[in-house]
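Appendix B. One record, verbatim.
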Amino acid sequence: MKKNEINKIFVEYVKENLSPTMEERTFISSRYDEIKEILKGRTFINGSYARFTSTTPVNDLDVFYVLSEEDYKRYKQLLLENKAFDIDDILNDLAKFLADKYPAKVRIKPQPHSVGIFFGSEDDFSIDVVPALPGENGLFWVPESAHLSIYNRRLLYESKGGNIKWIKSDPKGYIQDALWIDNITNGNFRKSAKFIKKWRRGCKNISSSFPLKSFHSELIVNKTCKSDDSLSTLDYIDSFYEQIDQYLFKAKFPDKADSSRYVDEYINSLSENEKSLVLQFRDDAKKILEEIYQTDSEVAIKDLVEKLLFINNKNQYNVASTVTAAYSKPYHE
């Protein structure tokens, strides 16, 4: 089968199986409209959902709550000196305010760096509300945990509380950049990033020590798209696997808000075993892609795609699966 025909199969697979469903999008839009109205519009969505690179199921939504200019002025000197300060009062007041607005069945949970809104059990969809102080030039000051995924952020909460450092952040800059590159690649950035992130999640489910982070993998795809915006979704997926080894030995993505800090700084402390684990999964993915290129059956190609993504328990590794909890409830009231 010709590569352009295989690419069409990949594109359709991403659209039909990896992208958030209409039911999810409607549910999330409704939940966000609620909190936006409650917090008087001083909010914006952050994270992969805002960048249109999230995959189904969407476990959670990252929402930044922009505090007042008065708060910024009050804390400005501490922020500029990169000192920690206690935000318990802000979070407790916010949690109480939200609890008064939401029905009793919605659980509001103040956390060390944010407020969690849970619409069911902790395995169901939730919103994490992160306080953000307006900075200069469109930047924000956010708790140091804000750059983590919500899952890892909550793990941090369990081990660390009290005063925290605040860092400069440019969430809107990353959102605008993702939308721009997706537009000039005719949607191929979004589709290839979703595919790679789903693969990365599959690797993580198979081996909890798989170190590659979701946003880092997205940035790698982003950079590949910028190097040539004329390629197909399948080309970008191929390029990711060809180039991933170049991104495992030194941090390469300066933070948009602070060039002295790297988004992928964790790479500098990876062990050789962790790097080898990524490359092992990469090599296996490339072998499956080679099988795909030699296959003429659309059904067989889809089966191989699911094998590559570890879907339907296609686990070719002799290790126990560590699949994270799925939703116990569907997206409805």
